[in-house]
Design a protein that fits this description.
Largest sheet: 5 strands, mixed
Shape: globular
Distance between the termini: 11 Å
Radius of gyration: 19 Å
Strand order of the largest sheet: 3-2-1-4-5
Number of strands: 5
Structural class: alpha/beta
Number of helices: 8
Length: about 230
Amino acid sequence: MTHISYRDLHFPSSIVQQAVWLYVRFNLSLRDVEELLADRGVEMSYETIRQWVDRFGPQIARRLRRVRGTPHPQWHLDEMYVSIGGRWMYLWRAIDQEGEVLDFLVQSRRDTRAALKLMRRLLKHQGIAPKTIVTDKWKAYAAAFCKLGLVGHHHQAKSKNNRIEGSHVRIRKREQTMQGFRSPGSAQRFLSIHAAFYNHFNTQRHLISASEHRALRNQALTSWREMIAS
């Protein structure tokens, strides 16, 4: 596993890790995190926090992705508008039946070519083909499904895709807090980090008891501390 070096910093590694965790894990602005740390007696600029997220976020996310298990064989695909650099673009997303974020792709178009690009990326990164893909009734998904020669079931129904549409809400809230993304590249980088953090702490709270949730949360926090260690 790649070593994470916290050398040459003016703050202890625990402060850096806490700042990155707060910013990515929760719907907070950089200035919000700055104030939370100030309340704990840690004075720093929000720009310092931004630099830490840019530097350490991708490294932590890579570690988290390496320990994820095989995704559920039913995948949900959809796209949403996002504001990037002052203009609207499409964010293509895929999650599994358990809500895990599988992949996403920022694209300027909403067509079969873009749908194909997302599906090829999914198959490459996941290493397996799904048994079922759920999408809305837009024809580009069906065309891409056929071109790839997938043998699983393609379920097209607007009402069946509520799971991923609900998942879009987290991204929309984050987009509003950040007042839009600066560029397609920065959106792709941040959302990659955000997805890894979300997946790690996703316990499907609505399906389990409070005691089970606490046990899974403690397990996630313990493994999180191991992942972020230098």
